[in-house]
Design goal:
Chain lengths: ~290, ~290
C-alpha cells in the first residue's frame, strides 16, 4: 500500500515539493492510515507533515480519543495541534444537524491551525466508500451533475489522497502494519440519513453490483473533470457576456440566447453564485425559470 | 391532462405540422394513454396518428392483448399494424436476455412499419418512473454521465411525449376517462434486475425522498442537454483534429494534449465510436488507457 499511495500522490501531483501538509486526525482508521502513509513517504515527496485533532465534545470517549491521538503522534514524532469545541451546543445555536455542525467546526479549526502555522495543504482521510455515500446522499437530495461530482481529490487547500482507496484496503493496511485506531467519533455523529445510506442503500446496491463503490467513485471523478471544464468555459463566457454596472450584473440577452442551452444554464448558475456569494437555496428549477425568462 | 399533454408536445416541439406518428401500442396503461392523448389533439397539432402492436409470443394472454388492441384502435378509428414474433426463440438464438430480445424485436417491427407506411415519427409510452428505473439500472451497471442521461424525449425518429409524466398521473387519467387497458406484457418480461430496481431499490429510495423519480427525471434531462453539448463540441474538434488516412483515423496528438481533459475524453470516445460503429464493450477504463497513451 505504501508504494501505491505514493504513486497516487505523485500521479495526481497533490503536493509540490516543500509543501507543508496538515492531516486532519480523528484517530479513526482512515486518518491514522493517512498520517502513517504520508509520514512514511514525507522524504520521498519532499513534504513536511503535521496533524490536528478536534475534540467534538460529543461522546464520553472523546477525551480518550484525544489521548490516543496524542500518543500516536508522539510515537511518529509528528507535531500535533489539539482543539476542543462543544459541537452539540454549536448545532443547537445554528439550529442545524449535528453532522453539519461538526463538519463546520472541524473545517474552521483545521483552517485556523493551518494558517497560524504555515501549512499549505490540509489532508483529509476520505476514501472511496465515503465518496459513494456522498454521491448517493446528494443523488437522493436531488442534486444536479455538479453536486454529484461529490468530493474532489484536490480543491483549494484541501486534498484527499485516499479517495481512490477502499475502506477494505485501508483496514487491511492497518491490520498488516498492526496499527491501532479508535472507533471514529464521526461515525457516531453520522446523521440518520447518512447512516441509512451506509447500512441500507449501499448493501442493497451491492447485491446488484459488488463493484458499486468503485463505479460511483469513477463516475464522481469524471463528473469532477467535466465540472472543471464547465468552470473554465463559464469563466470565459462570463468575461465576454456579463458586465458589472450600477451594483448589478448585466448579461447580454441576445448573446446568451445564442449559447448552447447547457452552457447558458452553467453561465446563469455562475452569475447567480457571483451575485449571491453561494448557491444555497438555488435549485435547478430556479435556474430553469431564469433561463425561460431570457 | 389533455391540455398539459398538448402543451408538453408543443413546448418541446416534438412533431412538426404534417408529421405522421406511429404509436407503439402494447395495450398497457402507458401506450393506451399515449394513443388516446395523441389522437385527441391530432387536429390541433396537425399530425396523423397510427398504431403498431407486436405480439411477443411470450404469454398465453398475448393473443387476448392483440384482440384488445385491435378493438381499441377500431373504436378510435386509428389504423393498426399488427405483427407477431416468437421472442423466446429469438432470445435463445441470440443467447441474451428476454427483455433485450423483446426490445430489439419491437424496435425492428416499429421501424419496418414506419418506413413501409410513411410514418415520420415513432412515439413510445415511457414515463418518468421508467426513466428513473433506467437511470438506476445504468448507474448500477457503472455507466458514465452520457449513459446516465438515460432515455431522451426525442432521439432520431423516436419521441417519448410522456417522459415528464408520472405513472400515477397516467393511471389517474385512464381512470378519469374510464379507459380500459391490459396488464402490460412487457412487465412480465421485465428482467430480474429491472424488477428488483422497481420493487426494492425505488421503494427504499422513496423513504429518503418521495420526489425521487421527479429528481432523477430532471437529472436525466439535464445530463441529456449536456450530452448534446458534448456531441456538438466533439464534432467540431473531430473536424479540426482527426483525419482519415489509409483506412485509419489520425488524431493530432499535440493538439489533443492542449484540450481540456473532459473534452479530450469525449473526443476519444467519439473517435472510437466512429471507428467501430458503436461503443459496445468500451468501458471508461478503456478510454482512460487511450488517454494516458496520448
Amino acid at each position: 500500500m505504501d508504494k501505491l499511495f505514493r504513486k497516487t500522490v505523485e500521479r495526481h501531483a497533490l503536493f509540490p515539493r516543500g509543501a507543508r501538509v496538515l492531516v486532519g486526525l480523528s484517530g479513526g482508521a482512515d486518518s491514522v492510515a493517512l498520517l502513517t502513509l504520508l509520514h512514511g513517504c514525507r522524504h520521498a515527496l519532499g513534504v513536511d507533515v503535521g496533524a490536528a485533532h478536534l475534540d467534538h465534545g460529543m461522546r464520553a470517549e472523546s477525551a480518550g480519543d484525544a489521548a490516543f491521538v496524542s500518543r500516536f503522534c508522539a510515537s511518529l514524532g509528528v507535531p500535533l495541534w489539539s482543539g476542543f469545541e462543544n459541537v452539540p451546543v454549536r448545532a443547537k445555536k445554528a439550529g442545524g444537524g449535528l453532522e453539519e455542525a461538526a463538519r463546520l467546526a472541524r473545517r474552521e479549526f483545521l483552517e485556523k491551525v493551518a494558517s497560524e502555522n504555515g501549512f499549505s495543504h490540509i489532508a483529509l482521510g476520505h476514501h472511496r466508500d465515503d465518496q459513494a455515500e456522498t454521491f448517493l446522499h446528494r443523488l437522493l437530495r436531488g442534486a444536479g451533475a455538479s453536486g454529484l461530482a461529490a468530493m474532489a481529490m484536490r480543491r483549494g487547500a484541501y486534498v484527499r489522497p485516499l479517495l481512490h482507496f477502499s475502506r477494505r484496503q485501508i483496514l487491511a493496511y492497518l491490520a498488516e502494519e498492526d496499527l491501532a485506531y479508535v472507533e471514529d467519533a464521526s461515525n457516531d455523529s453520522l446523521e440518520f440519513t447518512r447512516n441509512r445510506i451506509r447500512h441500507q442503500v449501499l448493501p442493497l446496491l451491492h447485491t446488484f453490483n459488488p463493484q458499486i463503490e468503485e463505479h460511483l467513485g469513477r463516475l464522481c471523478g469524471r463528473l469532477a473533470v467535466e465540472e472543471d471544464y464547465w468552470d473554465a468555459v463559464v469563466a470565459q463566457e462570463r468575461e465576454r457576456l456579463a458586465h458589472r454596472f450600477e451594483g448589478g450584473l448585466w448579461l447580454d440577452r441576445g448573446e446568451c440566447l445564442k449559447l448552447h442551452p447547457a452552457l447558458r444554464r452553467s453561465l446563469i448558475r455562475g452569475v447567480l453564485e457571483e451575485l449571491r456569494g453561494d448557491l444555497r437555496g438555488i435549485s435547478s428549477s430556479h435556474l430553469e425559470s431564469v433561463d425561460s425568462l431570457l
